[in-house]
Amino acid sequence: MKKENILAEVKSKSLKEVRDEINDILNKLENKELDLAGSLDDYKRLIQLNRHIDLLFKKKVKEIYSTTKKIKKNDKK
Rounded to two decimals, what is the model's pTM? Predict the structure, then answer.
C-alpha cells in the first residue's frame, strides 16, 4: 500500500484515534437505516484508515526487528 494514497489528515492520526474512528464507522454501518451513498463514503474512509494502520504496524515491525537485531549483535560480543 502506497503512502501517497493516504490523506494527510489520516496520516496525522494516532493508532487510538484511527481505531476509535473505525469503531464509529462500523457502528454506523451496522445501522439498518443507512443510505447506500453514505455507506460508500464510509467504506472509502475505512480503506484509508486501514492503510494508515497497516503502515503504522509495518513501521513498528521494522523498529522491533532493528532493535532485536542490535540486541542479538551485542549478545554475541
Answer: 0.69
